[in-house]
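Quick one: structure for this chain?
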Amino acid sequence: MNTEWADAGRLAGLREDLVVTGERARIPVEAPFTGEEIAELPAGTEADVEAAVAQVQDAQESWAERSVAERTAVLDRYADRVLDAQRDVLDLAQLESGKSRRDAFEEVLDVAATADHYANVAEDLLASERRSGVIPGLVRPTVHRHPKGVVGIISPWNYPVTLAISDALPALAAGNGVVLKPAEQTTHVALLARRLLVEAGLPPELFAVVSGEGERVGAALVDHVDYVAFTGSTRAGREVAAAAGRNLVDCSLELGGKNPLLVLDDADPQKAAAGAVRACYANAGQLCISTERLYVHDDVYDDFRDAFVAAARDLRLGTGFSYGPEMGSLQNEPQLRKTVEHVEDAVEKGADVLAGGRERPDLGPYCYEPTVLEGVTEGMTAYDEETFGPVASLYRVDSVDEAVARANDSEYGLNASIWTGNPERGASVGRRIDCGTVNVNEGYAAAWASIDAPMGGMGDSGVGRRHGDEGLLRFTEAQTVAVQRGPRVDPGPLPQALWAKAMTAGTRLLGRLPGWLR
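Got it. Here's what it folds into:
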């Protein structure tokens, strides 16, 4: 294997940072490029989770007492540290996930940009803020932001750097500690991302990592932390939300998607097709915000279809640690089987394969060609169930209204893409789409990479938001301290009826004052 991370000793060195309190069963870790077993992880238990949370609790109080500037200085240094160490990060992310190097590089950029963003804005967001009192001049409320305490993060294997660390950064900036349960398949690269953060100055005891299976370790984590940030399937997300509700702790959930792409009648078919290929096949379709449903206006359908099919066929599929292949491997055998089953089910029920539709064991055990389907209808699994693989379905529509209606005909609402020759028209159409993020003349990166703006799902695609101000403030408790100056607002010696009349008149007057006077 053409990476230094194939050395079992280097991987074992990373595992030294895991919280493990005793002898544990082992979980094999394989390299998707080859199917070879490259390491074993300890299968963590509730005892490990308890130890990790206790360790982080002990460290969190002193961390919260540091100034915001001190905390964000760590994030500032971390952005540079990740960029400097990108070769190691890229190699290990590819080794464990099977993705192409370009897709892995997007993660490096994302983490560095997220660190820079919150390093720049956290101090203002966390500053105590004066608010309007009930009686101007007599009541002075101030809102303070306190950390939640210990934040539990449960991250998946598809974006093992971004999703393991991008929620941790604002949580740490807000004064919290973090316990991370990464996916079993990609734990080593999560450990590397955490180690780089320690090298940037984070107290090591403030960020703990526990390895193991989600049903056991993830469930235990939800029961012991003060906030839960989860990224994964809608099914698992419901279980996390239910457990968080029982414990009366808050949570944010980014879940599944069956994301639509709309090509309007004024779109350039060639440009739209080129953009749609990236939207559909980034990370071999294993991206919560990637496209699986394409609604194309009849006026441009034939030209778009021809260009899209040709571009899908031309994608360079392959494995390796260079920037050559444009699309890499699926991560694991169950994901490959699911992709195969969705395509076979569609074909058996009458859909046509215009491109792809084949496994490629000659390239790697879990490689599957970028696939374009036409004629997918209700009753086919690929129609409304998330494939999470390199499979896209084309649909012809007669109007914008039909495209919007069909895009919204889904339980999911994570991400959408609109292609048009008129960006303002696209933005107007975008407001009609029931998705948390909508990109005009881009697949997903315009919204995702705009870290100053919130990102998250509607419907079955999740609860809460990452990125933006919301992405940091969710990790805080808002506390209002109101100082009363002068007399209390009660009847005192006045008859209650007279007091009520006076308060009625005063309330009307206050309602008419400009906000800055209140």
